[in-house]
Design goal:
mainly alpha
Length: 70
């Protein structure tokens, strides 16, 4: 338990559980943003993407950036 507390950077073990769940919740929220952004951009036609100045190869990176801004 002490190792877990040290790795999470938590001073008190009771805070560790709530902090862990907070981190998991945040990660899941970011994943939802990533998946939604990726899906929406992937559905656009090549012409629509061109109009936005986006190439298909950029979709993954843009979705990742959107998730990190969450």
């Amino acid at each position: 338990m002490a190792h877990l507390v040290e790795n999470l950077g938590i001073a008190h073990p009771k805070q560790g559980v709530s902090s862990l769940f907070g981190r998991i919740s945040e990660a899941l929220a970011k994943r939802r943003v990533y998946k939604r952004t990726y899906a929406e951009l992937s559905q656009l036609s090549t012409r629509e993407l061109d109009d936005l100045g986006i190439s298909r190869s950029m979709i993954s990176r843009l979705a990742r950036e959107a998730a990190e801004r969450k």
